Structures are given as C-alpha cells and as structure tokens.
Amino acid sequence: MPQFTLGWEEWLSLPDLDLPAIRAKVDTGAKTSALHAFAIEPFGSAERPMVRFAIHPDPQDTGLEIICSAPLKDRREITSSNGETEMRFVIETDVTMGGRTWPIEVTLTDRGGMAYRMLLGRSALLPEMIVAPAQRLQQPQLSYDVYHASLRQRPHRRALRLAILTREAENYSTRRLIEAAEARGHTMEVIDTSRCYMNIRAIGGEVHYDGRPLPHYDAVIPRIGASITSYGTAVVRQFESLGTYCLAGSEGITVSRDKLHAHQVLARHRIGMPTTAFARSPKDSGNVIAVVGGAPLVLKLLESTQGKGVVLAETKKAAESVISAFQGLKADFLVQSFVKEAAGEDIRCLVVGGKVVAAMRRRGKPDDFRSNLHQGGTAEPVRISKHEREAAIKAARAMRLDLAGVDLLRGADGPKVLEVNSSPGLEGIERVSRKDIAGLIVAHIEAKVAPRPPRPRSRTRRDPPEASGLAAEAPEM
Asked: Which residues belong to any copy of the ATP-grasp domain (predicted)?
C-alpha cells in the first residue's frame, strides 16, 4: 500500500462520538491514544457497560461542549512520561483522517489544560503510516466551524441512561420499554417508586435509592400506580427539579388521575366530552341527575382505574341508590351522561410526542358497557377520523403529557374524550396495531434529550494552539 505521511499535528474526526473535527498531537513516543474529556461516568449493566463523558473539542472555546458515550472496553493503569500513573477507562472508536477510517483504542482522561484535546499514540497508527516529526498538517485540514454550522442540525444519537419508575418490573410494558431502549444502544434501569427517598435542598438535591443517591439520568419514564399517585408524583417532581426529562410530568400525572380536575381541564380547552356533573351534598342528587339529562347515566369514582368504580345506572331510581351508596362511603364521584350511540365501544388513541401513533377500538363483553381490556373486553384495529385524531392530541396536550392513552367515544355530535391515561399499557395496543410502540417512545425520548446545537461563536480570529499559552502534552508510555 502507498505510504501515508503524518505530521506531528493533524486534524481528524471521530464519527462514532459525533466529533467531526479534532486537532490532535501525533506522538510515537506514547503507546496509548488519549482523549481529554471531563465528567467521565460509567453506566449500564455488567453485561453491556458504557461510559459517558463530555469534551470541549475546541480548546479555546469552553462554551462548545459535546456529550459523548461509548461502549466501555476496559479500564487500565496508564503511566505518563513523567512517571504518574492513572486508572483510565478505555473505549474503541473509529477515527477518520485523510479519507481513511479505522478503529483505534482511546483512553479517557481529564486534562482540561492541554493544548490538544487528543493525543494519537503509536498503537493507533496503521502499518503504512509514516510520521514526519518536523512537519505538521500533512493531511487535509478541518475546522472547528463545523460545530457551529447552521446545517448541522441532526444530533448524534448517543447512548442514553434511562430509568423507569415502576413497582411492576416484570409486566409487559416495562419489559418492552427495556427491550426497545437496549435495541437502540441505551441502558434502562428499573426503580421501585415506593423505595425512592429524597434529599430536598436549594442546591444539589438528590433522589436516593437503596442507600445511595441515584445518578443523573437523561430521561425518566414514570409509570406511577394509582395507589401511590401522591408519593409517585413527588418523586417525579424531584427528578424534574434536577433537570431530568420526565416522559410524563408530575403535573400531567396529578391532573389525569383526578377525574374531576381532568374534566375541568378538558372543558377549559373546549375538548368534547360527555356532560359531567359533580356534587357533594345528598340534597343535590336529583339536580345532578337532571344536569346530565337523566337516566341512563354513568357514575365514576374520581380515582377509578381500568373500569373499576364505574357504574351504569339505567333508571333514575337506580342512579339515586348508587349515589346514596357512594355518599355513604364518603367517596367522591362524577355523574356523566351515557353516550348511547357508542354502543359499548370506545377508542384508545396512543399519543407520543404530540402525534397519534396507534389506535384501537375496544368492545365490552355482551353484558358489560365497559370496554376496558382488564374487564374482559376485546380490541381490534380502527381507522380514526381527523376530528378524533385532533381531539386526542388536544387532550394529551391539555394534560401536558408527552405520552398518553386517550380514550374517546364516537358521539352523534363528534368525539367525546372519556379519560386521559398518563401511563397507558402497551400490550394491547402493540398486539392490535402490530407497531413497535415502545420503540417509538424511545425515539421520542432521543429527540427530546438530544444535545442542543452549539451557540454561535463570537471570536473572529483563530490562534494556533502553540501560541495560545495552553500547556503542552506530556507523552504517555
């Protein structure tokens, strides 16, 4: 093969790390290549260890920060030329220079004062490469301007550190989200919501678990059970206060779980829903029944889930009896008009990131007006109308939920939203739609937590690193 000449200084790129331009020192006196990074943090499982780190690719622009992650290959003790030893994480990544791309091993070290963000050691050189120590920039030159180019809008899909807040680690939805995340190169940790505890303070607050503070997660997927809504939303709020992206925000979970509050929010946004009434005094029972148009009507406990605590009263007398029973138990409930034309069917629309990604029609058992799958209902694919799609998206947006299961009825005068679920199950909708819903959720998270484009550079003049006053690189043996 023809010889490939390198100078003591060259430009290169590390495409796997989303670093399109790095000025490196080529040093045959050092065996190991090194990338000068900071905030170096291992994560992931023992079977698939990862490492996350940050780097300022331009030594003269500390405002330019790129977050990288890569599979962790090893951890080794490295000795520099001045005799200092250091344990470093080792990764393997592709390097591109002069039209050639090849894999190299790179160690990670925090040396922010160095003039070069990368040292290319002799073990990284190909056999046909010759280093001319008296020359520099023998290969095509790059520029740090590539980081600021307006055309560079597509973020690199780095490995993310994700967590699911749930008390059901083995259910279908949890397993599918873990599978989808790992298939896209991310790691997902399952955290029992009820075992979290919080250190609440103005600066440096934390969420603790199993006697230790939890690390920073790129995103958290809350799947909070109805029985621990209050405590679960407190944990989610703590993550939010730490700057972690939560797929379902604490406000959205709280509002969607309170059926009265949820319907008030839907009404405020002028979203179609069954006529709804609420009262506390037994003296108002007759008036409440009249408000919704009389029997038949539906009565719902405010915190009912999966069709539990929902009763159809077919006559006024039956409605009064149920109302009396609920009031005797001091239980708050709603009274809603019964949408006859729905005929025991509803539509579940799954909204991810402001888009309806799947929909199914659910039918109740012949003797049950409830269509919930947990109550023995059946489901089938359905094509929804433009108005139904818009209603579902509006409802999810009103609840401030990036992931929502919106249940609606097909009324004579248009779609009517019954409920917005902040942690919808995935089993039924994936089976019926035959779509990778979990994968779509993870893709949405990737888009939300991707690094922002770097800020515009204010400097107009570039100084070469040898004139910058930064420390010179010490070779490593």
From this structure: 263-446
